Fold this protein.
Amino acid sequence: MTKHQKSSGTISRRDLGKMAAVSALGLTLPVASARAASDRDRPESTLERVRRTKKMRIAALVGEPPYFVRDPFTKEWSGACVEMAKDIAGILDVDLEYVDSTYGNSVIQLQTGKVDIALALTATPQRALSIGFTHPTYLHPYGLVAAEHVNVSKWSELNNPDLRIAVDLGSTQEMAARRFAPKAKITAFASRDEVTMALQSKKVDCAVFAALLGLTAVKKNPNIGKFSMLSDPVLGLTSNFAIAKEEDTGWRDFLNVWMDYNRDLGQISSWIMDSLALAGIEPGDVPPDVKF
């Protein structure tokens, strides 16, 4: 057999390499094209949108010190949550946009894409069905606002049929009171303002409040009583950031790392304590057993 005949009847290693390359290219091109098309069809994530628009929209809770306070003259925002949002925006190198909101409206605003983040929300199973949550900002413990003659420091002491307790309807305070003081006479009012009015008018003996809310209520209306912690057990629910549900986890992952970093360093606690002054609360007004 001649050299020419041998070469014509066999395939060289070089030819095999070329064929493999062509074959691989033929398989790779459609896959790459499919991936590119998939990326085009994929909805833009929150983190991508924030970085593209250079703007982070937050649900700003009007009149909720120490979290949010808006100056009526300058329209400038301040508060613990504002400081947190500013820090996040600084890391991302984006501007902050404040969208007027309430606790209830912020959930809807997240679902409809009106805001990118809502701060100072309690994570509950019901809310988790419609929105997502980050790691906890801090644990918000429960206490009691009561007149001097009401000598109660434990949940077991609150579970008294002779006590008239006020709570705001649908709140976590109501859930805690009904679970640990079922024998008491519990009245749920439509708002925290109505709870305060019930205390002022002596229609109730006391009211269950989350710590920051109770301290703020007493500072605004000293005649409603004093705030003290409830113990045995110390109860509380976490305060969290809320975000929209989405497949891309980039926004949640970034916020979780930010949260853990600042909480473990004590920075979040400092922002909260510093912002208590916006509600007129001095360090001496905070009971020593209140920890954030």
About this structure: The two ends are 90 Å apart (CA to CA).
